[in-house]
């Protein structure tokens, strides 16, 4: 979870982190260096509007906040400071109040502004600037704990009289560190000490720090004698009973601080449980992906043997093609391995971010200070819920490619088709053939017959072709040939007629689209259909001469 503990500005571990209204945190020094005068962060049109407001000019109702999506407008017109911090609010308005008027008048009390480096939302602050932001005590405690664990400070026994030996345990009830010898002598696990809990010294040191920190009651900044015991749901802030009863939170909905803390922890725990299950399934999926990547090489070796065996059985013309096919296999292998490794890398990165968030949230859940916890609980609940909702989509719980080489070679076509030979998908991966292409230079007409030749689309698996011709007068097409050949001659057509031809390919997966139509004209000659041009007188003369003979 180290990325969760680093400032997005300086990229170092947080130092005195402050909590932004958008739930992101910054080092107080980074926040101070990032703040600018409020006027510098406003668009030019908004700045001019503010100037007009200062001069007493009534702002037009046409001024719209929709032009400034980075600004949190909710806090301008409500008590919930969710993005803009203002010291004063307008008590009266001249004319009809509008959101734009309220917004601009509220900004007059804002001296500084910060643009969040993570979500790029604008946060406007009073004259104290970034120092008015609350300290993220939960994050600060987790960072200190993480750094202390990294340093591995050696803790000494508190009961050794002469040489202080290294402590090996700490009693939670006695709050004393013991070495092995002093533990056996002074703290035997029997009698009154039987129910005492011994923990690791490092963990014990953390427990003591938490106890000392939590022993201090948090006081209300407005009523120093009052303890923060309630939580305002409107302002999302802990308040004292006086603030809730008579102060500015009097009209707001408030809840007891412990109950609110318990509810938020419960909601966060439920979301973490759901996200944890998905992280577990993601880990298992990554392991399967790694195994699949390892099996690609073995499957590739078997497939290469099949390709070589088939290629060796072919005639000499296939030798050159054999090298090309093996190259395609190597490319397919590299593509599969690369794709699977990329998916493993993507899924690992997502899982690492999710695991970091899980660990961070678990540490937050250990926070016993309700006030500190509630500072970050809403943001964490939202983040965990978003991560949970997007986990399956981002994880892609299905391999991008199959480790199997579902390819084969079709070595049955004629020799002239070898130049176009390529792999095709096997099993359920087979697809319908592509659109065939008629070859005009190989098509011809002779007397009342036509010859049509065509070729398949490169890479298509074709089981048969269907050739169709119309009736020579632009009528409907009819089937004249079905088979595996790629050339066909049709006889018995009408003379001096233009025929349109088209062809389609098909296999058990489906049919292709029809090819482009080609038009062919038969030779000129007498057609029995044209009786108007027949010489009946000549026929009569022939019959008369025959009768005399």
UniProtKB/TrEMBL annotation:
Gene3D superfamilies: 1.20.5.170, 4.10.830.40, Classic Zinc Finger (3.30.160.60), Immunoglobulins (2.60.40.10), Zinc/RING finger domain, C3HC4 (zinc finger) (3.30.40.10). Residues 432-525 form the Fibronectin type-III domain. Residues 152-201, 215-257 form the B box-type domain. Keywords: Coiled coil, Cytoplasm, Metal-binding, Zinc, Zinc-finger. It is found in: Cytoplasm. This is E3 ubiquitin-protein ligase TRIM9 isoform X1. Transmembrane segments: none annotated. Residues 365-424 form the COS domain. Residues 315-343 form a coiled coil.
